[in-house]
Design brief:
Layout lengths: L2 E6 L3 H11 L1 E8 L5 E5 L7 E3 L17 E11 L7 E6 L1 H10 L3 E6 L1 H15 L6 H8 L1 E6 L25 E6 L2 E7 L3 H9 L4 E5 L2 H19 L7 H10 L4 H7 L8 H5 L6 E8 L2 E8 L20 H20 L9 H5 L6 H10 L3
Parallel strand pairs: 2-7, 7-8, 8-9
Antiparallel strand pairs: 1-10, 1-11, 2-3, 2-4, 5-6, 5-13, 9-10, 12-13
Helix pairs in contact: 2-4, 7-10, 8-10
The structure holds iron/sulfur cluster (2 copies).
């Protein structure tokens, strides 16, 4: 007989409060005034907002690993007036910034959706693997435990099942939970040592008993209904074929102009996307001291590719959108055998002119060539 380990939902708030004593807990919080849901610290939950684990967050949780703006290090120019042609640069703080992160309290992202954990896998491939790694990202990632709740609520713009995921995909979650009405049931448990420690610390909240056959049936039903609903939002995509198609139709300028004609290049879709990670590096300097920072950038923005000469290789909106779609469904796949779109649907939800990435891909595919 299999066992069922669960936490009673009536104890969830007390569990989270206890967790927050030893960890920095982030979770989806809905602002009562405007209804938006975003990942926030449990510390800010008050009478003006409410924890909402059922719906999607407007912004993805990527900023918890890849902040919109982040100081990399500080620097100071040293100039000897007797040798004015020689300038020394002293770097300050970079080691300290990384060690501050390493020594800070661990984070727990509670209620992260399975599609967003697939996006974390993409971020790992960009920042955490290969020859050049980003130590700032790696420290944050190592320091964070992902607790997912599978999606019993599937929205019309969700399409994770089309791009290799599913509403209960827990491969990238440290702990995967299923909402069974009264209880949150543990469905997946990773081997991470710090997760074991967390569970030991909060041992009193977890109950265990034998699972009965009705419950087994109920779990299967919850999973299959969500999968079915999500699959009906879009057909399944064959990544290999689609990458080839994108490649073949890259120079179909008229098609690209036509399918992107509504886009106003506002970059909202890239801002909310859990996998978009373009960034810029800049310096802020006062006198001889300054700091170097990394901040989000957007390939859908005109200035992203504007060169100092004034030439812009992606001057037109259709060229920039074509690049974005190719990044999601072609370039990244070729490098990593992993699509770069996780089907969260946020870009569809947020676009002010109603662009739908599924429609764009469908159009590209339907062009005979
Ligand atoms: S491209 Fe759109 S659907 Fe795909 S991961 Fe980004 S925001 Fe989500
Ligand atoms: S949100 Fe819509 S209009 Fe804005 S850049 Fe993206 S596709 Fe274009």
């Amino acid at each position: 007989m299999k066992t069922l380990t669960y936490i009673k939902k009536e104890n969830l708030n007390t569990f989270l409060e206890k967790l927050n004593k030893n960890y920095d807990v982030f979770l989806p919080v809905q602002n009562k005034a405007d209804g938006t849901i975003n990942f926030e610290s449990l510390d800010i939950v008050n009478d003006n907002n409410v924890i909402n684990l059922k719906e999607k967050t407007r912004k993805s949780p990527k900023s918890l690993f890849f902040p919109p703006s982040e100081n990399l290090f500080e620097f100071e120019y040293k100039k000897d007036i007797k040798k004015p042609d020689i300038m020394e640069i002293k770097l300050l703080e970079s080691e300290k910034m990384i060690s501050d992160e390493t020594n800070s309290r661990k984070k727990v992202i509670f209620g992260i959706k399975p599609c967003d954990t697939m996006a974390v896998k993409c971020l790992d491939l960009v920042f955490g693997e290969g020859e050049k790694k980003d130590p700032y990202y790696i420290m944050k990632r190592k320091n964070t435990i992902l607790i997912s709740i599978g999606c019993s609520n599937v929205f019309p713009d969700c399409f994770c099942t089309s791009v290799g995921g599913n509403p209960f995909y827990f491969d990238y979650s440290d702990l995967g939970l299923i909402d069974m009405g009264q209880n949150l049931v543990i469905f997946k448990l990773s081997e991470r040592d710090d997760l074991r420690k967390l569970l030991d610390e909060c041992n009193e909240f977890f109950e265990e008993r034998e699972i009965n056959s009705d419950e087994e049936i109920e779990i299967k039903k919850i999973i299959s209904e969500s999968e079915k609903k999500c699959s009906s939002n879009w057909e399944s995509v064959n990544a290999e074929d689609i990458a080839l198609d994108m490649e073949r139709k890259f120079s179909e300028e008229e098609m690209w102009k036509n399918i992107t004609r509504k886009c106003i290049s506002c970059a909202a879709c890239t801002y909310v996307c859990p996998t978009c990670v373009c960034f810029n590096i800049g310096d802020e300097q006062t006198g001889m001291k300054g700091e170097r920072y990394k901040c989000w950038d957007f390939c859908t923005n005109y200035y992203y590719t504007l060169e100092a000469s004034g030439h812009n290789p992606r001057e037109k909106i259709y060229q920039r959108y074509r690049n974005k779609i190719n990044c999601k469904y072609n370039y990244f796949y070729k490098r990593n055998k992993n699509l770069y779109c996780v089907g969260c649907g946020r870009c569809i939800d947020v676009c002010p002119v109603g662009m739908d990435i599924r429609e764009i891909v469908k159009h590209v595919r339907s062009l005979q060539k």
